[in-house]
Amino acid sequence: MVNSQTYRPRHRVDAFFRTIREDIYAVRKGDPAALSKISIVLNYSGLHAVWGYRIARALWVRNRKLLGRSVSQFTRFLTGIEIHPGAQIGRRLFIDHGMGVVIGETAEVGDDVLIYHGVTLGGVSTKKVKRHPTIGDRVMIGAGAKLLGPIEIGSDSSVGANSVVTKSAPPNSILTGVPARARSRAPQLAHEPGDWII
Ligand SMILES: CC(C)(COP(=O)(O)OP(=O)(O)OC[C@H]1O[C@@H](n2cnc3c(N)ncnc32)[C@H](O)[C@@H]1OP(=O)(O)O)[C@@H](O)C(=O)NCCC(=O)NCCS
C-alpha cells in the first residue's frame, strides 16, 4: 500500500501528472468495462468530477471559497456529481457511473475508495460542525447507499447497494439493509506497493 504521508514528490508538476495517471488507473482497476486511457479520459463523468473537485479544492484551501464553490457547482452541472470543495478526498477515488452522488462539506474519504451512483455522504445536523461521514481506505460503497452523520466506516469495508448507514463500523465490515447492519469478513490482502506503480 502506498502511504500518502510518506509520498513526497520532488516537484509539483510531477505530483500533478502522477495524480492524473493514478486517477486514470483507478478507473481501469475499478471498471472491467473500461477501454483505453483515451476512452477513460473522454467518457468517465466520475473522473471529470474528481478532477473538478481537485481544482475546486485547490481554490477552497487558498481561501478562494466563492470561486471554489462555483467550480464545484459547474462540475455538478456537467457530471451530476456534487463534491463539496470542503470535503477531504484521498487518492485514487473512483466514482463509477456517478450521477446523483453527493459528498458533503465535512466528509473525509480515504485512498482507493470506490463509489457508485446515487451515493450520499450526508449530514443529519444543520449546525456548522463535523456532520458528514469519514470513510476509510479501500471502501466500496454500493449504488444508492446513504451514509448519514459523522460516522466512521473502517478501511476495507463494503456498503451494500441501497443501504442506509447511520452508525460507525469497524474495518472489514459488510454493511447491508435499512438501517444497515454490519457483519465482519476476513481481512483482505492489502494492495501490494507495485499495484500503483504506473
Ligand atoms: C453488500 C455486498 C458488497 C455484499 O457482497 P457479498 O459479501 O458477496 O454478499 P453476498 O452476495 O454473499 O450476500 C450475503 C447476504 O447479504 C444479502 N445482501 C447482499 N447485498 C445486499 C444489499 N445491498 N442489501 C441487502 N442485503 C444484501 C444477500 O441477499 C445475502 O443474504 P442471505 O445470506 O440471507 O442469502 C454486495 O451485495 C453489494 O451490494 N454490492 C454493491 C454493488 C453495486 O452497487 N453495484 C453497482 C454496479 S452499477
TrEMBL record:
Q: Which reaction does it catalyse?
A: L-serine + acetyl-CoA = O-acetyl-L-serine + CoA
User: What's one GO MF term for it?
Assistant: serine O-acetyltransferase activity
An example GO BP is: cysteine biosynthetic process from serine
Q: Does the keyword Coiled coil apply?
A: no
Pathway, per record: Amino-acid biosynthesis; L-cysteine biosynthesis; L-cysteine from L-serine: step 1/2
Family according to the record: Belongs to the transferase hexapeptide repeat family.
Q: What is this protein called?
A: Serine acetyltransferase
Instruction: Give the species this sequence originates from.
Output: Gulosibacter chungangensis
**Gene that specifies this protein:** cysE
